[in-house]
């Protein structure tokens, strides 16, 4: 069994996907949004949902849609004009998705993010909680770059990186990048007709850089940003597939394990990768000493950490910071992203969840560290 067959085998099918649809696909030759094509992908995503797959959609297309609404024929060079076009176009883009998902009784939600949201701990945690809540509600988040506040990303037209960061954020198992080519070739097929399609390759392979060349036409990110995206996604253990978005029922066929496009394999085991990712992502800001009961439920039952199980709190941390949890012997038990600041933890340590509001005057979350944000050591 090769990697792809293993990955899509009945028992191991990836359950959470990020699907990225690029500018080169979404626009009708760069002119306007290709609504029939969008309806087709929405149908496929609705079918994935019916099979219990959670889907986060990362969709480009705001600039192109805005250009068409404003009657612009050429993509402007000035950043503020691109930003204005994106602001106009984003409305039509989400409306198109909303209407398309509505046909399947599914709700779509608009999420606009920038890279700073991913490196700022509090924003990271908030974005993650919102996305995970939407997924648990069966809603399809439709993510795009917050083009009003970024410059480089809109200039380079790169939503591939954003899609990879979202893959890390929600710990998706698979990133599917739909594009205008059937997959990644060993050279740019536009300039080299001899180029051959790569079926499967490690995302770490150094050859990929040479093969990817430079940017494509409309989106301008080209294959190199997709290769980098696959490497970023691999940090949290996700495989990536770069594949032709116009292939008939492409998402359904991928789910069936059909060998389409290029599978870029994350070499690390997902659990290991996730552990490293969480631990490496953020600096440790504090230490919580847990009582024996908390240690045992964390280890044996995989539950969230509640305030009642915390005996001591050291360090000066904020909501969203990474803390290390130790037992009373000082041995490390887990690491995780904490929902309350050190100051707050000192007021609620040892207290029941019901009494948090009484002690603080408010309650943000029941858990001190949610199990999704906790990695056992
Ligand atoms: N090795 C390669 N394999 C496939 N496509 C390549 C390769 N190198 C460069 N490209 C170019 O990348 C383009 C896709 O990138 P881009 O236009 O940014 O798409 P998107 O808008 O989907 O992100 C292709 O049309 C192709 O010309
Ligand atoms: N965020 C912008 C541009 C993003 C973009 O084109 O990225 P890509 O599809 O990776 O080439 C938009 O929605 O138009």
UniProtKB/TrEMBL annotation:
InterPro entries: AceGlu_kinase-like_sf (IPR036393), Asp/Glu/Uridylate_kinase (IPR001048), G5K_ProB (IPR041739), Glu/AcGlu_kinase (IPR001057), Glu_5kinase (IPR011529), Glu_5kinase/COase_Synthase (IPR005715), Glutamate_5-kinase_CS (IPR019797), PUA (IPR002478). It is found in: Cytoplasm. Pathway: Amino-acid biosynthesis; L-proline biosynthesis; L-glutamate 5-semialdehyde from L-glutamate: step 1/2. It catalyses: L-glutamate + ATP = L-glutamyl 5-phosphate + ADP. Keywords: Amino-acid biosynthesis, ATP-binding, Cytoplasm, Kinase, Nucleotide-binding, Proline biosynthesis, Transferase. GO terms for biological process: L-proline biosynthetic process. Its main location: cytoplasm. Substrate binds at residues 60, 147, 159. GO terms for cellular component: cytosol. ATP binds at residues 20, 179-180. Catalyzes the transfer of a phosphate group to glutamate to form L-glutamate 5-phosphate. This is Glutamate 5-kinase. It comes from Marinibactrum halimedae. The gene is proB.
